[in-house]
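User: Run a structure prediction on this.
Assistant: Running it now.
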Amino acid sequence: MVHVTPETHRGPSQTGSAHAWLPIAVGLLAIAVAGWKIWVPGMWHDEVATLVAADRSLGSLARMLREVDAVHGLYYALMNGWVNLAGTSAFALRLPSTLAVGGTAAVMTALGQREWGPVAGTVAGLASVAIPRSLWLATEARSYAIATFLVALMVYTFWRALQQTRLGWWAAYAGVAGLAILAFMYSVLVLPALAMAAWAVGWGERQGRRFWVATAAAGLAGSPMVLMAITQRQQVGWLTPVLLSRLRQELGSAFLTGTKSGLVNVWWVFLGSCALTWLVAIRRQGRRERGLFVLATGWLAIPLTALLTVSLVVPLWTPRYGSICVPALALFVAGAVAALGARVWQAIVVSVILALLACQSWHAHRLPNAKDTLLDVAAIVSQVRQPGDVVWFVARPAGSDRTPRIVRYAYPEAFTGMADLTLDRPFEDSGTLFETEKPLTEVQQQLACVDRLVGVMYWPADFSEDFAEADLAKLAQSGLVETDHRVAGRWTVIVMERA
């Protein structure tokens, strides 16, 4: 095959240098929009997992990763350094994700600008942040936003390398692809889309060798994390197989999380119309344009199809895993604008549509209890506690991985000065993600000295039986009587005093 050079493509790739400021401007705008009010929602279990993983020594983190969460090892290591500088507030923990969302918008703007010019490039960047999943990513102190940024950067460096004769871009692609796999192992599922795109544009033998060598190097770099993840397969035991009847709902959750049901169909009609418009137009374009369409389609379809198909039998899927495919949707929107002529007024119309569709989910993801009711639980504890109180975190039921102490880790000021009745080893010394605890039968001596106790309990969604009944009976036998009982979502706070 003959390699297709940039000159054979209709897109004004030379505008990249003329408008070098544009990706930065769009990225900053994305940070401002996606980052506004990220501090408002209370934290939830997974974000507190990030907090306790990062807020420990590197030695403790290394011991923890040998037991659990190796798949998040790179992210935890980065956050370990970050929290030493910025602290562990909700804003500080989420800011790296917000910056990553802005980085993704900048990368997509740069890619769109090189292919279609500044107008469609701007649309690519704005669309990447307007997708509801991106608006959620900016508020989430987890690795998904950074993984999405690295996948977008991987695609960009690959596309640049494919159009160049120099080795520098292939080296950059290999490095970024390796980091993307380390950050999120399912990033490897985007690689087949790159191979399909390279074949569609007509790569030469030399470029083909470079692609496979660079891809193999990236896979080798990411393989240790994949192997560790396989040994820790039990940590995703909470996942359940996907039902065929729920496929449409799973796809909606992957990209349109937080969107009201009435708007979901509008989103799909809009995105489907963009894809169809671009598809019809590429018939009149060259190989490179067709290759970019194949790239966007594969980027979107291959990871989703692979994960959902396997998860019909072996559970590997949660809608958050679709995050790495969000930028592909942005390419469909920008490709449609380019197909229609990439006029400024068209970009304005599309941007207004995106803003109108996105504003509801933007607001939904920035409510105080958007994730959990930990803020309310901490407020209740602050209201009911008295000097000298002891706190009792009710032991989690068998099979649950959610420790009620996450509320103390997230909002320690509500528990200042309160002794923890059943704490055994704190998370720093436990050798795993969270703390270890003692049963009530081992703290009878301490319990005899307690005059007033504040109990905090979390009820798992799939657990209806009163799993704390035996422990409450032990407290009653010791002379403690319940005097207050308050509920916040699935959380319960009780006050017990000596009769």
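The longest helix spans residues 90-116.
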